[in-house]
Amino acid sequence: MFYIELYCWPYLVLLQFSVSPFFSTIDTVTLEPDKPSLKVEVSYTARLECCYNTSGSKEFLWIKSSKSANKNIVTHPLPDAVTENKKGESGIHCGVLILRSTTLNDTGFYRCFLNASVVFTHGTYLQVYNMPKPHDESVKNGILAAEGILLLLCVVLPSTTLLFKVILVLITQLEQCKIVCIYVGSNEDMQLEKP
Known about the structure:
Blueprint: H1 2-23, E1 29-31, E2 37-41, E3 46-54, E4 60-67, E5 73-77, E6 82-87, E7 92-99, E8 108-114, E9 119-120, E10 124-129, H2 137-193
Parallel strand pairs: 2-10
Antiparallel strand pairs: 1-3, 3-7, 4-5, 4-8, 6-7, 8-9, 8-10
Organism: Periophthalmus magnuspinnatus
Domain Ig-like: 21-112
InterPro entries: Ig-like_dom, Ig-like_dom_sf, Ig-like_fold, Ig_sub, Immunoglobulin_dom
């Protein structure tokens, strides 16, 4: 393995010098932590941010990844999204994506693609949900009655089976006692008749 590394070394140096002019145009970027997830109710506004620190171009594009109908992950850019680019403290730039009146189809993983540095930000998973409808009183009462019946069955059935087992054991012991008493009684009768 040592010989292979020595043998490959000149090629690696040559590769580094031939590729380095392409990478010199790429700016250094420091990514700030994104909010990992955001839950929003349907038809509300979602506000997503991707923050970064760079000395180069501040151009970015929002990218959305989501599952399609056949369970494949589909990634597509959002060029017409409502975005703004704001500058925070200490040179931190934030791209803001505003989704007004969200729908269930807006659920997905959103990231910024920084054009100058060819870097994706960490991203935020947006979950859009329907608020469950509250149940009326009759449904709640039915659920409570069913829970009560199940609880009663869970208590009554095991206790009755245990009670019947105890009664069965007592009956068998009583029958064995009668048999023993009859046997003992017949022996005493035989002894009385002998003299």
